[in-house]
Write a structure and sequence with these properties.
The complex is a heterodimer of chains A (502) and B (236). With 502 residues, chain A is α+β, with helices and mostly antiparallel strands. Chain A has helices at 3-16, 18-56, 78-86, 250-253, 260-274, 278-281, 313-325, 333-376, 378-386, 391-425, 427-433, 442-445, 451-454, 465-492, 495-500; strands spanning 61-65, 90-95, 104-108, 114-116, 120-123, 134-138, 150-156, 164-165, 215-224, 229-244, 256-259, 305-310, 329-332. Chain A has 15 helices and 13 strands. In chain A, the strands form two sheets. In chain A, strands 3, 4, 5, 6, 7, 8, 9, 10 and 11 form a nine-stranded mixed beta sheet that branches. A four-stranded antiparallel beta sheet of chain A has the order 2-12-1-13. The radius of gyration of chain A is 35 Å and the shape is elongated. The longest helix of chain B is centred in the last third of the chain and has 18 residues, at 177-194. In chain B, helix 6 (147-159) packs parallel to helix 7 (177-194). The chains are: A alpha+beta (502), B alpha/beta (236). The interface between A and B is medium-sized, with 24 and 27 residues.
Chain lengths: 502, 236
């Protein structure tokens, strides 16, 4: 038989027993709906968890520290950074080194009137872009040589706000655009604001355009207490671009980022100028030259912290494991995420199990319906056999019939689930409209209490397209499987018995 | 003329509890191509069993059946189904039309089973119905037709695939005398026209008169095998 004939035959038969078909389909609809909605709740909670963690920090970034490591753990130095970089799935590895052995300030604007205190950050030039920051203007290239005394830098988007007007009293509210303290030195929360998409509000609201004016870094290399004269060494900082680390990467958003090589250059210049090693051997700095200094035996070589960026969240765990095995400590959002997801998965499994029971009942229902249909049609089946209908066609005919019940149930179930999901997502509004107050805190239901308060626009239920496709396939599969035993029964019907049956 | 159906030592024994019931006790039969063979006998004589076995609906306990040179007694169900599609037609006593299908769709069923496209098979079914005088009923369902009309649809269905052999089990058993004449005439005309072999079971002796060969069964044995080659000509 042609497939089109098989289908029209099967569908005709379903149509002949409308009420029975409808009842059986309803069973499937309920089962599919239960499962889809359960899964959608879990997806929604997981998405919310991810969004929340995303707010806290990058899921694919691992912070590696050597602090508290056992003896024999290799130094967290440039060599190690290179080793991390070469690890499969690692797309970038860099220190974020803030030199603290020397002191200097940024000056700029007309007559170098504005003085800034932004922190210098040294990074591996090739690793800055892959770390996932947003380039607002310019380019990433802090590695070009621009001439003696000139250093290419990336400006963190909030760094321009760190400038103070030196012509005004430091305690004046006008001395800074966004002062952290008022005139009485009480802390005020007056930081630059971000909008919902993470873009800085009023970005033009600073004293001068850092990107186009001449920017000088004045490193303090000497101070004569008697004459009260400070000596400086000046460098020209040439901004190549402005970047944003988002709301969470304070170090980047407020910093002046340059190549680690140039930070080392500044340090060594400082040492040369002052004749000391304090520029680096101090509290956790880099030892540029282990032979120098005053023979400090407790010197920690290498960096305090190195950041490793992984290509995909799913590879983070493996990388973390190997870094831990090397003896380092790590901090990452993935750990936290795993625990949260584990909790959600557990609850989801339990509810999914209940939903599966209802689908199982639906399957039994299909089997029953099909068996009844076959018993009723014994005679027809016999006649078809006598007229030369092949056994495989009879089997297919009934499998298509039961598969159709599953498919239709699945399709209607998916539509119902989508509607239900819409209803759930608008539950607070609906309850509000009905005058009922109350929060629906799904997160606490999944054992992640208090999340709803952090995510005010969190969705209760999310149905991605793959879930619809999966549900349809699964429902059809359930229909087909339920039809196997009844259709075998149909095949076994003796044509002779069937036509005798008066 | 060649032999269309040949049986050798055909036996059928049913077990009813501990007892054995012999339905057929060794039947040797040969039916020529294009012959109209009527099988008659008392109820319980084994005539229906013989027909069912000839049509491959029932397996013999012993003995062989060959149709058009093919030994159907040793075919499995799947091969038998294909063999039926290609070689056999059936007319039932109780018509056995599928209630959800129209007359034309019913008549086209064997062609559908053998995989013919819808347009082509309905065209052929319609031609068949027209010859049975049922052209205007093609779109009706069985429940909207009289017994005689239903049986004519049944006959159209049997002829639609141009089989080599048509088996008919009491085809007029449920019809009144006048309709019987009508239906029988239609069937015989078309068998003669296409040179199809017809094997018909009946318990009415006067119906048997129209056969070229009349086989009489009693207690599972052939007690009469009369060739009435000229019956048709005599009647004319």
């Amino acid at each position: 038989m042609k497939p089109v004939d098989l289908f029209s035959f099967s569908i005709d038969n379903l149509r002949r027993r409308k009420s029975r078909t409808v009842l059986t389909v309803i069973g499937v609809v309920v089962g599919v709906c239960a499962i889809v909605v359960m899964i959608s709740l879990g997806i929604a909670v997981n998405r919310a968890t991810d969004a929340m963690l995303q707010n806290w920090g990058d899921l694919t970034k691992i912070e590696v520290v050597r602090y508290g490591a056992q003896q024999g753990t290799p130094d967290l130095d440039d060599k190690m950074v290179g080793i991390f970089q070469k690890t499969p799935h690692v797309i970038a590895s860099t220190p974020m080194y803030q030199p603290n052995g020397f002191w200097g300030q940024l000056v700029g604007g007309r007559g170098n009137r504005y003085v800034g205190s932004a922190q210098l950050v040294g990074m591996e030039p090739t690793a800055i872009e892959p770390m996932g920051y947003k380039l607002l203007t310019g380019n990433w290239d802090v590695d070009t040589y621009l001439g003696k005394g000139k250093i290419p830098v990336l400006i963190g988007e909030q760094a321009p706000f760190s400038f103070m007007d030196s012509k005004k009293s430091a305690s004046s509210p006008d001395a800074m655009k966004y002062p952290a303290y008022d005139e009485n030195y009480t802390s005020i929360s007056n930081l630059p604001r971000y909008d919902a998409n993470g873009a800085l509000l009023n970005p033009e609201d600073f004293f001068f355009d850092v990107m186009t004016s001449k920017l000088t870094y004045r490193m303090q290399i000497g101070y004569d207490a008697e004459t009260d004269v400070t000596t400086y060494k000046d460098y020209e900082f040439v901004p190549v671009g402005m970047i944003s680390g988002g709301m969470n990467d304070y170090m980047i958003s407020n910093g002046v980022i340059m190549s680690i090589k140039n930070v080392k250059l500044l340090e060594s210049d400082y040492r040369k100028a002052t004749g000391s090693a304090s520029g680096s051997a101090g509290s956790g700095g880099i030892v540029m030259d282990s032979g120098g200094g005053r023979g400090n035996t407790t010197t920690v070589k290498g960096y305090d912290t190195v950041y490793v960026k992984v290509d995909d969240v799913k590879n983070v765990a493996d990388i973390e494991k190997s870094i831990k095995e090397a003896g380092y400590q790590i901090y990452s959002m993935s750990e936290t995420r795993k625990q949260m997801q584990g909790q959600v998965a557990q609850t989801q499994m339990m509810l999914g199990g209940l939903a599966a029971v209802s689908l199982f009942v639906a399957a039994l229902n299909i089997m029953n319906t099909m068996t009844m249909a076959i018993t009723e049609r014994t005679r027809e089946i016999g006649v078809m056999k006598v007229l030369g209908c092949r056994l495989r066609d009879i089997r297919r005919m009934f499998l298509i019939e039961s598969g159709c019940i599953g498919f239709i149930g699945g399709a209607v179930g998916c539509v119902a689930s989508v509607l239900l999901s819409l209803l759930l997502n608008h539950l607070p509004n609906i309850l509000g409209a009905l005058g009922i107050k109350g929060d629906v805190d799904l997160a606490s239901f999944f054992g992640l209490g208090g999340m709803a308060s952090q995510m005010p626009d969190m969705k209760l239920s999310i149905i991605p397209p793959w879930l619809i496709i999966l549900a349809l396939a699964f429902a059809t599969g359930v229909g087909l499987v339920s039809g196997i035993s009844p259709s075998n029964r149909a095949v076994r019907i003796s044509s002779l018995e069937a036509i005798r049956h008066e | 003329m060649s032999t269309m159906i040949r049986t050798e030592g055909l036996k059928k024994i049913y077990r009813v509890g501990k007892e054995k019931v012999v339905a057929l006790a060794g039947v040797d039969l040969e039916i020529e191509q294009g012959e109209v063979c009527c099988i008659v006998g008392q109820s319980g004589s084994g005539k229906s069993t013989l027909l069912n076995m000839l049509a491959g609906l029932e397996k013999p306990t012993r003995g062989t059946i060959a149709i058009a040179g093919k030994k159907i007694s040793s075919m499995d169900e799947e091969r038998l189904a294909v063999f039926r599609q290609e070689n056999l037609g059936f007319v039932f006593q109780s018509y056995n039309l599928l209630p959800q299908l129209t007359a034309a769709e019913n008549a086209a069923l064997p062609l559908m089973f053998s995989g013919m496209g819808k347009e082509q098979r309905l065209k052929r079914a319609l031609r068949e119905l027209k010859q049975m005088g049922l052209a205007e009923r093609a779109g009706h369902r069985p429940s909207e037709m009289s017994g005689g009309q239903q049986q004519r649809v049944g006959i159209a269905r049997a002829f639609v695939a141009r089989p080599k052999v048509i088996f008919a089990d009491e085809p007029t058993g449920n019809l009144d005398t006048q309709t019987t004449q009508h239906v029988l005439r239609a069937m015989l005309d078309r068998v003669a026209k296409y040179g199809i072999t017809l094997v018909m079971v009946t318990h009415e002796p006067n119906l048997a008169e129209c056969g070229d060969r009349v086989v009489t069964l009693s207690d599972g044995k052939i007690i009469g095998n009369v060739l009435r080659k000229n019956a048709e000509e005599e009647a004319l």
